[in-house]
Structure formats: structure tokens, C-alpha cells
Amino acid sequence: MSRRLLSLTRVAVVIGTAAVLGACSLFSSSKEAKPAPLETFTPALNVRVGWEARVDSVKFPLSITAVNNQFVVGDSDGVVTALAADTGNVLWRVEIGKGMNAGVGSDGRFAAAVNRDNELVVNEGSKILWRKTLTVPVITAPFVAGERVFVLTLDRMVQAYDALDGRKLWELRRPGEPLTLQQPGVLGAYQNTLLVGQGPRLAGVDPLRGTLQWEATVSNPRGTNEVERLADLVGPMGRDNATFCARAFQSAVGCINADRGNALWTRTVGGTRGVSTDAVMTVAADGSDRISAWGTPTGDVIWTSDQFLNRKLSAPLVTDKAVLFGDSEGYVHFLSRDKGQTIQRLSTDSSGVAAAPVRLGNVVLIATRNGKLFALRLD
């Protein structure tokens, strides 16, 4: 799949008047771009595999939750598993049935995922509490907080359910965009505010009532048609305290202050994957896998890196020791924070990295499309 925007080749789903487009359907090319060869480098970071585990394959947009010293993961067979972050031991496992379409969200007590029958399934440990069939497809992992489960549908409607009994509490529909994207969106929280990506905007929503509190724009897309103006926020989202940073599909990266509900900065840049953020930098790769690091407070460019062109990078992870990316050949790349130079590389398996790397304490979890899990320790 070429990373250059060319033409619309497929309409995946139509919901009401909104067409839902697959990210890959926006691109076409007669010849796949060749990935950049692996460069030689001098290792400057010690990385070791603390433990390995295995789940079924990952053929859906997996989101790994790290909470309460456990990683909660899902697989294509529809199995949700909680693993101890320090040892990899299975804490609990539950089958939600019918494979998995979106997941997994968890607050450490409840976990939520959506299966291929578009059922929202909520469990507490190995016990399934309830399941509910949704009327609109979901591919964004549910968000669980405050004994509530929040769902973002493909048409960017938000729904809230009671985590204990599955009662629907509210739903929020916004004016529809002509097109929405068949790619996981943005769903999170800051203090007592639910954060939702709706089109190119990040919205602050009252989680108790489902009312809009504020919204801030990441991108103001300009194009001659609806495809060129498609700019949904895509996950994962980066965070540093009250600052949240996100990518608007193929148009911009920006950061927002959730206390005030206003944009701090935006930068015009293409790309389809999410971002990672800490107090110093926000990092993302563009559609050609050219990586940029911007200062989180200002949006000023700190460095750019082009040694991974066309390697189909995952969303990144910014840590205090390095910036991490996985790629489609299963390599995990570690870049220096100051210049973006390669300082370490780890090979997992050839199936490719299936999700954004996730950190809990001093452990980083990597998941591959074949379902292998690698817990890395950066010394």
C-alpha cells in the first residue's frame, strides 16, 4: 500500500448518510514502496526480554491496556487475557466469543471489548457480567472508568453504559461528517472529563450526563472534496498531565490543554498512526514513515529522522530512555531522545508489530500479529 494519497478505491460501510472509509482504501499504487534497509548503528542502550507469552493472532486493531501492574490484551479468537507485568503470569482469561473487533479497555477491575458480532462484552476477571449488541460497528477499544463503559462507534457517536449491569446511560450524537474513517479513534479521560475524537476535533464531554463541555480543533482540513477533507482523530493519543496530543488523519498533529479546552499548537503533517507524548516531546511518523519530534509545550521541531522510510511503523512510545517504534517486519527500533538516532534494535518475529508499544513501570510490552508478546526491560 502506497503511503501517498491518490484516490478513493473502496467505500467500506455506509451508515445513514456517512460513508466510512478504510485507511488503506485511500491509497493505491501499482508497486509497493520498498522499505528502507536496516542501518548499521552502535548500540547505546541495553534492552533485554524480561518474559514472553503468547495469545492467538492479532488481526484487528489491538489496544493494550496497562493498569494496576497488569497488561490486558485481546486476540483474534475473542479471548481477553490479563498478564502480570513483572512476570507475565496469567492472572485471568475469558472468552467473549465470535472473535474480536475492538479491544481491550480496562480499569483494572472491569474489562470491555467488542466481538465480531458487534457485541459489547464486559467482564470482571474471568466472569462475563453482560453483553449487549450494538447497532453501529465499533473498532475503537472501549474506555472503562468510574464503573462506566464508554463506546465510540464508527460514526463517532459516544455511548455510556453501567459497567455492573449494562444499562445504557446516555449517548451523544454530533452533527455527522460526510465521511468517517474505518480506523480506531480517540477515547480517554482527564479528571472528570471524557475526551472523545469527533472528526478533526477533540471534545470534552461530561461523563455523567453526556453533554458537551468544550471542543478544540486539531486540524482545519482544506480540500476540494470530502475525501481530501477527511481528518478524523486517530489513536493512540499522547498525554502529559493536562496536555493531550493527537493526530488528525493525513492532515495534522496537535496538542490541546484539557483544563482550558483549547489548542496549544498544530502542525501540518500527513500520516495515519497515533502519537506519543511526554513533558518534553511529542513524536509521530508521517505517511512515508519519516519521524518528527516536536516540543510538547511549543510545537517546535526538535528533530526529524528518515532512516525508516516505508517500514510501516507502528504508533510510537516515548520513554525516558528512548523513543520506540515497531515495524511490519517485527523489528522494534529504539531512537535517542536528543537526535532521533538509532541506539538499539530488537527482532521479535517476522509477522510484524501489531499495536503501539505500551509501558507499565519499567516494562514495555510488544505484541506481534502472530500473537507473540515480548516484555522488554530498558536498562
Automatic annotation (TrEMBL):
Chain ranges of the Pyrrolo-quinoline quinone repeat domain: 77-304
Pfam families to which the protein is assigned, alphabetical: PQQ_2
PROSITE patterns the UniProt entry points to: PROKAR_LIPOPROTEIN
SUPFAM superfamilies: Quinoprotein alcohol dehydrogenase-like (SSF50998)
Subunit composition and interactions: Part of the Bam complex.
Entry similarity comment: Belongs to the BamB family.
Reported function: Part of the outer membrane protein assembly complex, which is involved in assembly and insertion of beta-barrel proteins into the outer membrane.
Name of this chain's protein: Outer membrane protein assembly factor BamB
Annotated gene: bamB
